[in-house]
Structures are given as structure tokens and as C-alpha cells.
Amino acid sequence: MSKVNVNKVVVAYSGGLDTSVIIPWLKENYDCEVVAFVADVGQGYYELEGIEAKAIASGASECYVMDLKEEMVAQYINPTLKTGACYEGKYLLGTSMARPIIAKAQVEVARKVGADALCHGCTGKGNDQVRFEGAFAALAPDLKVIAPWREWDLVSREECLDYLEERNIPCSASITKIYSRDANAWHLSTEGGVLEDTWNATNADCWAWTVDPEQAPNEAEYVTLKVEKGEVVAVDGEAMTPYNALVYLNEKGAKHGVGRIDIVENRLVGMKSRGCYETPGGTIIMEALRSVEQLVLDKTSFEFREELGVKAAQLVYDGRWFTPLCNSVLAAAEELAKDVNGEVVIKLYKGQAMATQKRSDNSLYSEEFATFGADEVYDQSHADGFIRLYSLPSRIRALNAANKK
Amino acid sequence: MSKVNVNKVVVAYSGGLDTSVIIPWLKENYDCEVVAFVADVGQGYYELEGIEAKAIASGASECYVMDLKEEMVAQYINPTLKTGACYEGKYLLGTSMARPIIAKAQVEVARKVGADALCHGCTGKGNDQVRFEGAFAALAPDLKVIAPWREWDLVSREECLDYLEERNIPCSASITKIYSRDANAWHLSTEGGVLEDTWNATNADCWAWTVDPEQAPNEAEYVTLKVEKGEVVAVDGEAMTPYNALVYLNEKGAKHGVGRIDIVENRLVGMKSRGCYETPGGTIIMEALRSVEQLVLDKTSFEFREELGVKAAQLVYDGRWFTPLCNSVLAAAEELAKDVNGEVVIKLYKGQAMATQKRSDNSLYSEEFATFGADEVYDQSHADGFIRLYSLPSRIRALNAANKK
Amino acid sequence: MSKVNVNKVVVAYSGGLDTSVIIPWLKENYDCEVVAFVADVGQGYYELEGIEAKAIASGASECYVMDLKEEMVAQYINPTLKTGACYEGKYLLGTSMARPIIAKAQVEVARKVGADALCHGCTGKGNDQVRFEGAFAALAPDLKVIAPWREWDLVSREECLDYLEERNIPCSASITKIYSRDANAWHLSTEGGVLEDTWNATNADCWAWTVDPEQAPNEAEYVTLKVEKGEVVAVDGEAMTPYNALVYLNEKGAKHGVGRIDIVENRLVGMKSRGCYETPGGTIIMEALRSVEQLVLDKTSFEFREELGVKAAQLVYDGRWFTPLCNSVLAAAEELAKDVNGEVVIKLYKGQAMATQKRSDNSLYSEEFATFGADEVYDQSHADGFIRLYSLPSRIRALNAANKK
Amino acid sequence: MSKVNVNKVVVAYSGGLDTSVIIPWLKENYDCEVVAFVADVGQGYYELEGIEAKAIASGASECYVMDLKEEMVAQYINPTLKTGACYEGKYLLGTSMARPIIAKAQVEVARKVGADALCHGCTGKGNDQVRFEGAFAALAPDLKVIAPWREWDLVSREECLDYLEERNIPCSASITKIYSRDANAWHLSTEGGVLEDTWNATNADCWAWTVDPEQAPNEAEYVTLKVEKGEVVAVDGEAMTPYNALVYLNEKGAKHGVGRIDIVENRLVGMKSRGCYETPGGTIIMEALRSVEQLVLDKTSFEFREELGVKAAQLVYDGRWFTPLCNSVLAAAEELAKDVNGEVVIKLYKGQAMATQKRSDNSLYSEEFATFGADEVYDQSHADGFIRLYSLPSRIRALNAANKK
Predict the structure, then answer these.
(1) CA pair distance B190, D161, nearest whole angstrom
(2) Inter-chain Cβ pairs, chain A and chain C, closer than 8 A
(3) Is residue C331 in a domain?
């Protein structure tokens, strides 16, 4: 493949080994200026400390660090949560939800610095390449896209380290790295190593954030979440921003071993992979939102919300965030969430987050209707007629069959 | 409402207070012979001990006890499990799945004894009346149906006890009964009492089967399930019938506090109710089946299975078992389950059942494809073309928008 | 059933035989003041002429006529059309879409006159009773509802006429009325008579609006519709209000026999019925909207729009307009319709309305991409990679199977 | 791209220009034996006449012609029809349904002759390449696949003709061919030429099978179809095989201009294209099947069948025939079709096929239930209770809202 002509490229830079190699590689192979872009999505202090200097040392002409934490939770995670999205029944989409906002911010940097290309460090076997490039196609179809992992010949960490050493670019990365990890405020994912055989159980190394449930406190702890329009607005009596609520709940959840998932999933690119995901605060929030929905959504609305969740999980996982279809599904969920107001107490204990108390001013639950023998709203005799009409097709079908005999 | 004319009625008899009242009430009010029918669906020894004598003592002319345990698991529960059905995201349908087989067996008894009517003891506010009468409409539209709770004036346990006392019918039922419970081999449900206020947490009395997770063993325990065509065929190396596997796993699960659910749900009859459900073995089985699916189902198949699960949960909950639609959904799930073969190890610990190891001869997971840089089946350069075509509509849409500016 | 206590009731009055009987019947049986409410939804001049005097003559204390035509098309029909709703694949929901706005306006009149009850003239076997009472439950749960057809003993037109004659209430209704009809600006429905046997073909009497296609002009005629955000905004070059566009297209369509449907459908109340529907302008509009969608919606969006159409058809037919679920589905469709802009030429000929030309500034169709051998956006070699990844699960599955042999 | 090593390849041969070029091109570029395979799917006498000699003259070592007509209708079309599949609301999938059986037969020939590769003549911009290669991946993942159009440099008919002339291979193809066409027993598709601008109306040349509705007979004609388990088994009183029934109805339909569709559709490969489709017999069959369903399917079953139709259309169009998901969807439809028995009269007139009479022994329609004031099965008073329970959530929600004011 002949290389495209590039003047200035903005690379999504993480400070890790591969993106450190990408900077000099881009300069050498495309003879272009390289601008580093770092998205702060809550991956943590150690990941970000000194990252600008590191980027410059690797050869970037500039390095932009953008704090996307509040926006990510408010504009990407919260709308997704209203759909109830949970990929293949388990995965809370931590990596998936972060990609669109990173791509969008990267495009903004490209526009600002007048770049004509975008570059990411995703491998050619994963979902993230599709998510980044899908977003780029929607937001900046005029910009070229460079995906070094699909282009270069480097195939191991050792070769990458050699590459940097030959160029005297300092790098603190170790030669062996057993697991591939991705972290943000919502989750931490782990792939590789022992996980590559699905018949292997995980070991302690596979988990990097949450306490092992078996080592978690013997005493349960309770948190109380206040929900408005399908979003957490306060925890334990204190109003919090979306991001701050998440951080607070992450700490509580992690302490009690909440939110560990070990899953084999279908990647968008046709293969399966196994990942361990830790989503401590997110797991608590999901339990809380679903619990308020139990009080508020009627039967058919709840069923549709479940269908929206299945759909939204696919769309978000598949990198279709910036599409009319995703907007449509989110709009439907937003509408259903209008009444999702209430308060929930969640018990945290040895890996579990379980709602123990729930209430809502919009609750359709009524002690009176559900239990008393007689009330004004519900008359038991109504059931007679309901059942007759409800089962009428079965009756006619059976009568038909009997007549034919 | 003028009473219909009835000669002989078969009543679904449980041995509890209400059905004990129903027998004499039917005789007095319909001047008919009453045949008692007891379905053994695994509700347990104490519920069934001496039940025939009790029915006769209450005035029944005959009492049929039918053992439906194996058939229930094999013909009703297993097909439902293949769909992944879980009502409103939580409830494993324990009561719902038992109703169709009970109704079907009741109709068979009615045919055998030449009855012209069927009677059940469900209240006028619940789902079970619809499930029974929906099944009756499909299976025996010619038989009359009597639902005493929608007809008589008795509104309290006290009145029911008085009713029996006046007629010298012995009854060991207590005057107070806080909770309403339903048990079978799959689950035990609890409603009423403290649960009636959704802001009340459950207390120890709300749970009658499983150990409190906080009292469960401090040591985790592991069970290994072998799955063939979406059904558990062996546990811990031993081939078992569907019912026996369930019993075995119930004991393991109950010991570790597995399978407790506290949910507010939408009843079919328009109101909400709160229930505590204990499904120890079932929760383990669901985790195992879903885990094998992770290995075996491709992306679009998995998504469809999730949609089938949402649909099937509604159908089963709503008493639509004996309908063409339910048959259709079950047939679709049966087809998908053809490849769902494998083995799963489940860890039981303090209320959780979590798959830790899984394998399958049909696994689409391949360590080689997922991880190596290069292989014969997956070439990273393929991703280029995939992404271009995959995101083509986004690209054209964005180019259109740019052109319009 | 003991009658509820009513002071003042607002009755949805049509001027026809049954609602003419209902007025005196309400006064006699509820000893209350009766206010007539007439909704002008475009049912036509002859239906509405002199209707106020007629209502008063029948005993109403007042009669309110409200012109709902523009609001019905703009606020009820247009949002529904964006979903593509077509009940059971055929029926364009003419009666269904009119009911919610009539019920809402009736409640407004009730509030204005201080009524404590609402009354409708729907029979006990149809959908409309559910649509009216469903809307009343959502909008005015405090008001009582009277449904005379489920209450009184009158069972024939003759008895109704006798009832009026005994009370000296003038009525021009004839003793025989073969068909039951419902008309508004969107459609005219016909039930009964010869249609009651599904093996009877329709005859000329079954159709009351459109020209028989066999009698329609031998020359085709063309209309050009301009669509913005999924709504018709101009026809044949002239900007029109939603209602005026519909009237204009009704005339064109009716002349060419467009929009006749003869269907057996499932009523909400469990039975089937047969209806002939004439929707001349609506059929043209549907063809136009779907045609613009062909240009604008991408593959997955189009599929979702089709699913929304199936859902919305059920919701609207089933009288669930004023529910969160309906709002949610409409919001999703509204979002998808944002790009549905364009122009369509429709050919009208002998019963058919067929789009012959279509264009849109938002079109994703590109002559260049679709046909040329090479272009900048689409490179044929991309297809290689796409197909490999797309069919990867099939390949792995087949390799697995081969390995097992 | 380096060429793979091939010994013997089976090419899907049509006798047209491109596959005539492909045979010598394969021999030259892969230095391999080329076996021609011709699928007779009802494309017609002129397409097939002398085709074996032509293949040999072009350089094929052998030519296999397989008659797939009955199998295609019975095993591929009929199962699809039960789902109601209609791609993007219009297209009856004529090309899509033929591809899997052709690919399957081609694989069978490859196995028979010991070939190690398969070749098709589909372009790199279309759906068919995905359909063929998707089937190959599922049925013969070990065989290599050659797609000349994605490989060679020929870009015009002229170059193809020159290619043959240089090699002295006779060819009767003309230098200009305005339209690209695909024909089989079910349909004939036309793309290209004047159709490439969506604002162009079609002209007479765009249609190659059916009579222009404006030239069709002025007298309507009627056909009667007998349907069993969702399949046409007899027409006009005569039992016919699936293929023969289709041929018979094609003739009738074509004569009356039935089954013309002009659509812009989303291709699987991300772009849109426009096609004219003629499906005369198929359109009649669809109308007949959907009409029997109107009598037989209850409300929820009908809705599910519509959802299955949307899904199946995508699967078939997208070349996913040989997948577990497709099997699952077909199994669901097969189940629903069990009761789809009946008889339908279809009126053919000036481009329309409209059911005028229908009946079924399984009909859930009952004149008695739908019309009389009173009957044994349906009591109008039942509607009271039905509506109360049906609208209970709306009522509670509205009462809640009122209480909050």
C-alpha cells in the first residue's frame, strides 16, 4: 500500500509503549509533524503524570491533554445507562463508551492545529480501530487516518523497545507485559495472559482494581443513590456531579469487590475474545437505575427498555455512536427515563451490589392495589372479563380444532 | 352473576387453607361432585404428606396426586432456559413455568373422571388466574371454569377458618400467615408482610430456602456442569436427569446463599407487586448455559437469543405457554441451542454463582485468532476494508453535510 | 351493576342514531345534565351540518363542536407516519389515530363545563371503547366513564328508533343500515353487510369514497410531494398545511382509486373483524415518505425504522397513545426523520400510487459509488477484508465441524 | 496481492461476457484447470441454450449444468416466504434467495471434481460477492476463493471483448449493454442505465418481463391459490409442485403487469443502489400467504411474524443463509406457518394483485363473534374488566401526577 501524503497528524497518545513508538514512526514514514493528544478519561494519575514531557521527548511537536471526565460521564455514559445497555448480557461497555468522546476530542485538536490526518494505536484485531475510525468517518471524513498496527512490521514489545532504543528515545516500559489493559473512570479491562485459555480460571493478577470478594470486608456496607430522570444526582445524601458520584461509588464498590466480570465476548471484527472487566461504581449505578425502573416503568415500557438495551449495547460496542440510529435509540430511552426518579439503598457485600430498599414519587406500585381484597381502582371482578378477552384467540383456536375432529 | 350448572369439578388442590375451603364451598354453591387434583412439582414432602386424606376429609370424592417433577423440568423449564428468559431482567419465572403443566395435568384428570368444570384457588389480583384460565382456554375450551376468589365473599383467613369450623372440617392452618408463598423444584417465592412497603428491606423471615449469604460458608465451592444442546446433562462428572440435576444444584446453591432476588415486578393484570424469589439451582444453571453460549454463539445469534429471552419471559410470565407464538419462540431458541455444548465450572461463594472456567468443542473462540499478530484465518489488513465499508454510510453522510455548508 | 352517581356528563356525539339515543338515555338513567361534544376531524359537511340543533333537540343542554382537523394531522397523524406504522401490514390506522385527539378534546370540554363523567357510543366488541377509555384513564382518571352499549338492553336499530319515537325525539336515521362506517380526513372505514363472510368479495357498495380502479381514468396522473423532516410540506409546488395537503391528495387519490384495502384484522379485544378501508391521500403520503427514506436512511436505520413501524402500529391501534411507551417510540422515529428531506413524484393509475422519481439533498445514494469501477470513497479491494471478517464466524464454525470429523 | 496456488477451480458460469472472460483469465493467471458450473434456477431457455459448448469453447475442461429449480423454490424460497421477508419494505429478495443454493451446488461440484478453489463473477461493489463467499465460508472453508473482478484490471465491456478477441474465443456479447440484469424463476432485476439517477423515471426498457400496467388487459382476471402450512400447493384447482405453481402464476402476473418494484436500497457493502425488480408470480403468492395469515394468526403471533419478516429479509439479503441465526428465524416462522392453511382468490388488474376472497378451516374469524350483540364466547360485559386492567398503569400514573399537584 502506497503511503498517503500527510503534513501534520494528531495521534491519540497514551504514554504507553506503542504510542511512544508511533510518534517517531509517523515522522519517519510520513515525514510529517506529529501532535500528541491525550484524553483524560479518568485513567488515573500514574498514567497521566509527566505525559506531556514524555510525548515531546518522543518527538511530538506539541501535546494537548484534555480533561474529558465530566463530559464522558454526563454525555456518553449517562445516556447509555438509560437504555440499560449491557453487551451480551454482562459487559458494561467501559471501553466502548470512552472511544467516541476521545475520537471527537481528537478531531477537535486536529481542526485546531490544522492537521490533515488522525492516527490511533489500536491493533488490527480489535474493536477499537473500528470505533475510532467509525467516529472519524462521521466527524471528519476529509481527514486521513493512519493505523500503524495495520501497517508496520513490528510484532512484539521487544521490537518496539528496540525501535525506541535505536532512536535514543527514553521509555520506561518493561519488556514483558502479560496483560493488555484499558482504564477509565468507569472501568478497567484486562485481556491476555492466563485468560487466553477459557478453561483457565482467573488468578489474582487478572484483577487490578477491585478487592477480591473473598478478601472484602465481612461487614456489609450500604449506599443510597438518588436518581432523577434516569441519572444519579446524589449519593448518601450529597448532591454530586456525574463524575464525582462515579468516583465515590467506585471507591465503595472496589472495597467490597463489586463489579467483576469474566466474559468471552464476540468482537465486532468476527472473532471472540476473553476479558476481565472491573466496573465497581458502574455496577452499583446499574443496580440502582434498574431498581427505580422497577417502580416506575409499566410492563410494556419495561419490555421496550429491555429491547433498547440490547440494541444500544450493540451500537455502542460496535462504534456506531455518531449515527442517526444511535441517536434514535438514545432518544427513545431518554423519553422513557423522564419518570425514572427515586431513591435506592444498595447493599455492598463480598462482590455483590443488591438493592434492598427503593421508593419513588412516580411509583406505579401501590400497596393498596396489590394486596387488599378490594379497592377503588382495582375490582377483582374485572379480571373475569380481562381473562376472557385475553384468552379469546386460544379459545377460538381450540374450539376450531375440536370442531374438526 | 348467575352460577353455571356443574356436575363434577376438578379442583387444583394444594392442601392449604383456601383450597380446603374451596372444596365444601363448591359442593354447597354448585351442588356438584368435587375431585381434588394435586400436582407434585417438587414443592416438598411436608406440603404433600397426607394430602389425599386431607382432601377427602374436606369433602372431595377422590384425590389424584400426579408426579410432574421430571416432566416439568424436561418439558417446560429446559425449553424456557434455552431462550434465556428472565422476566424484567431479574425473575427466573419459577411460578410461571409451573402453571402450564399443572393446568394441563388438571385437564387430563378432568377428562379421566368426566368432569365438566375446572376450579383453581388463585386470587383475582394475580397472574396465576390468567395462567390457569389461559391454559384451560387452549386445552379445554368446553369445560367451565370456577374461580372462587373472584366469586365468594370471604376476604380474610379468619373467615376461611370460621367457614371450615362451622362445617367441622379439620384444618391445621394458623389464623395468621404473614407471607404468601409458592414453592416448586425450581424456586420459592415470598410475597406480603414487610415486603409490601418497597422502602422496607427484607428481613430473615422473607427468605425460606437459601442460607443468608452473610451466614454462608467462608470457603467457596465449585460445581462443574456439562451442557448438551442447551441442557444440563451432568453435574460434577455424574450424568443426571434434568430434575435430579436441579435438586443437586439446589442443595449446593442454597448452602451458599445463591439465587436470592428481591424485585418489584409488573403483573399481567396491570398492577405492580413485590416478591422475593429464591432459585438456588436455577441461578447456577442459568450462569452455566449463558457461559457456554459465550463460547458458541456468534454475535448476531447472541443478540437474537437475547431478544428471544425478552420475548419468552413475557410469554411465559403472561401464561401464553400453549400458544403458537410461544411454540415459535421456543422453536427458534431450540435451533440456536443445537451447538450449545460444553463444560463450565461455577464458583459458589456468599450469594454468588460465577463461571470461572468454560470450554466447548463448538467454541468459536480461538486463542490463535484472538491474540497472535498473524494467522491464516485472520489477516489484520482485512480490517482496513471492513472498516471502510462498515463506516461508508457515516462517511457519505458527513461528506454530504460538508458539501452543503 | 349499580349505576354510579353523575351530575353532568359530556358525550362524544356524532349525530348518528346511537348517540342520539344516548342523550335521552343518559338523562333518564343517570338523572344528569348531558353536554354534547362533536369533534370535527374531517368527517365531512353532511355529517356535521345542523348537528348542534340536533343535539339540543335530543336533549343536550349544550353542544360544543371543535375543529380538530389541522391538529389531528399535525400532532397525531404526522408523528405516526414517521414510524411507518401500518397495522398488520396493511391498515393505515385511520380510525385509531383519530381517537386520542377526540378523547383529549372531550376531556377538555368536560373540564370546561365542570362535568364529572364522560360517555362514548362505542360498542362492547370493538377497539374504540378501549381507545377512548384508555385515553380517559391517562388524561382524566377522576372522571367517571359511561359506556351505554355495554349497559343498556337495546340490541337493534329498530329498538333504538322506537326509543326515540316514544320520546318524540326527531331522527332521520333509517331502519336499515347495512354497513358500519367511520370517516375522517384520513380515511373511511366500512364494516358489516356482505363483508361479514370473508369468502365474499366486496361489491360496489362496500366502497364509499374512492373511484373503483376499473372506472378510474385511463390516463395516469402525477403528483409531486416535498418532504421535510418526514412530513409533507408542499404538493405540486405549493406549500400547504398538513391538513390541506391531505385534502388535496385525497381528491387526487380518490379519483384514481388509490388506497383501497380489504383486510381481516385482529382486534385488541381478542376477536378478528373484516374491514374495507379507503385512504386515498394517506396512501400517497406513505409512498412518498418511504421513498425519501430509501434515499436517506442507512441499512441499520432503515431496519430499526421498520421495527418501530411494527411497534407503533400496535400502540396506536391498541389505544396506547397517551403512554410513555408511545412517546418513546415516537421520539425514536422523530430522531430518524430529521434527515428525511426530499422530493418525490408519485404516479397515480388505476388504484396504484407508485413513486417514479425521488431526490434528496441528504441522499446517501451516489451514482459514482454505486456504478463506476473505481472512486475515491469506495475501493473494491475493501470488499476482500470486509467479507473475510463478516464471514469469520461461519468459517470458524465450519472449520470446527471439519476438525471433529 | 500474491496469487494463491490453485490446481483446479470451479467457476459459477453464466454464459455472459464476464464469466466467459473469467475462464481463460483463470487459466492464464492461476495456471489451473477450470471447470464450469451452471445453475439452472429458471433464468430461461435463451440463457442456457448451448451453454455447455460455450463453456468448453472458452476453455473450460468440463461443464456441469444442474437443474436447481424445484429445490430452489421448495427449500429456499418457500421457507423464506413463511417469514414474510420483504427487504426494506419492498424487495422480494429474488437474487438473494437464489445465491445460497447456487453456492451450495457449486461446492458440491467442486467436491465431485476434486477442485481446490471456487470462483464467482460478482463485482467488488455488490452484495453477491458477500453472499457467495459467505456461503463458501460456511460450506467449504478449506477451498480457496477467487473473485476476478476484485483482482483484474479489466474495467469495461470493451476491454473484456478485446480480451476474448485476442484469444480467439468466440463471444456473441454486444459492446454496449445498458442494463445489468439477473433472472431466475422468481424474479428479474434490472440495474444501471437510466436508473442511475434516482430523479429519472423508469422507461419501457427498464422492464423486461412484465407487461406495462397501462398496456395490461382492461379485464381483471382471478386466480385461486390453495395454501397449506404456509405454502402454495394448488392453483386454480390444480395441485402443482412449488416450481410449477410459480411458473403458472408468473405467466398470469406478467400478463397483468403485476409485481413491478422500483427501489433504492441499501447494499450490504455500505452503499445504496437502485433496482427495478419484476416478481409477477411472487407478488401474487405473497398476497395470498399474507391473506391466509390474516385469518389464522392471532394478534401477537402476527406481530412476531412481522418482526421475523424484517429479520429474515436482512439475513437473506445479507447472505447469511447458512448460519444458525437464519436457521433459528426460519424455524420460528415454520412453527407459525403450521396453521396457515386456506384458500384465497386474487384479482389481477393493471399492475395490482389483491385478495378478494379468503377462507380457512383454521380461521379465528367468526362472523358470530364479530358482529352479533350477544354470543356464548364473547360477552360485551367482559370488555369492562378488560379495559380496566388494560389501562390500569395509565390510571395509576395519572392519579400519581394529580396527587403531586
Answers:
(1) 80
(2) 84
(3) no
Q: Assess whether B38 and B125 both reside in one domain.
A: yes
| Mean pLDDT value across chain C | 94
**Residue A372: its pLDDT value, please?**
44
CA distance C105 to D28: 79
The mean per-residue pLDDT over the stretch D230-256 comes to 98
Find, among C206, C203, C198, the residue nearest to C181 by Cα: C206
Among the options D180, D236, D262, D363, which is catalytic? D180
H helices within A210-279, ranges in order? 242-255
d(CA D297, CA D336): 8
Tell me whether residue B378 is in a domain: no
Chain B residues inside the 8 Å CB shell of A155: 373-374
Domain boundary among C116, C140, C167: C167
Alpha-carbon Rg for chain A, nearest whole angstrom, is 25
For residues C236 and C222, give the distance between their C-alpha atoms in angstroms, rounded to a whole number.
9
Cα A312 from Cα A92, distance rounded (Å): 11
Q: State how far the Cα of C2 lies from the Cα of D213, in Å rounded to an integer.
A: 62
Which residue range(s) make up the domain with C233?
180-297+340-359
Residue numbers of chain B with a pLDDT score lower than 70: 1-2, 368-378, 405
CA dihedral C248, C253, C254, C257 (to 10 degrees): 180
To test the contact with chain C by mutation, choose from D326, D350, D356, D392 the residue with the greatest count of C C-beta atoms within 10 A, namely D350
Give me the DSSP letters along A333-384.
HHHHGGG--EEEEEEEETTEEEEEEEE-TT----HHHHHSS--SS--THHHH
**Could you tell me which residues of C are annotated as the binding site for L-aspartate?**
123, 127-128
Tell me, what's the pLDDT at C401?
85
The pLDDT of D325-341, averaged and rounded, is 98
Catalytic residue positions of C, numbered: 18, 99, 128, 180
Residues 266-305 of A with CB under 8 A from B: 266-274, 290-291, 294-295, 297-299, 302-303
The question of whether A18 is a catalytic residue gets the answer: yes
Q: Measured between CA atoms, how close is D53 to chain C, in angstroms?
A: 31
Q: Which of residues 307-326 of D touch C (CB under 8 A)?
A: 307, 310, 314, 322-324
Q: What is this structure's pTM?
A: 0.97
Residue B106 lies in a domain: yes
**CB contacts < 8 Å between B and D, how many?**
83
Q: How many domains does chain D have?
A: 2
Pairing of β D221-228 and β D231-235: antiparallel
* Shared domain check, A222 and A131: no
Distance CA D70, CA B256 (A): 59
Average pLDDT score over chain A = 94
What CA–CA distance (Å, rounded) separates B115 from B99?
Answer: 20
Q: Which of B128, B182, B318, B339 is catalytic?
A: B128
The answer to whether residue C331 neighbours chain A at the CB level (below 8 Å) is yes
Nearest to D269 among C140, C349, C386 (CB): C386
CA distance linking residue A97 with residue A174, whole number of Å: 29
Q: Does D114 lie in the same domain as D237?
A: no
Subunits that touch chain A (at least 3 Cβ pairs < 8 angstroms)?
A: B, C, D
B94 and B235 share a domain?
Answer: no
ipTM confidence:
0.95
Q: Which residues have CB under 8 Å from C46's CB, separation 6+?
A: none
Q: What percent of chain A has pLDDT over 70?
A: 97
Is B390 in the D-facing interface, judged by CB distances under 8 Å? yes
* Closest Cβ opposite residue C336 in set A328, A388, A389: A328
Residues of C in contact with B383 (CB under 8 A): 385, 389
The verdict on D329 touching B (C-beta cutoff 8 Å) is yes
Q: What is the CATH number of the domain that holds A144?
A: 3.40.50.620
Q: Is B369 on the interface with A (CB under 8 A)?
A: yes
Query: In this structure, what CATH number is given to the domain that contains residue A233?
Result: 3.90.1260.10
Do the Cβ atoms of C382 and B388 come within 8 Å? yes
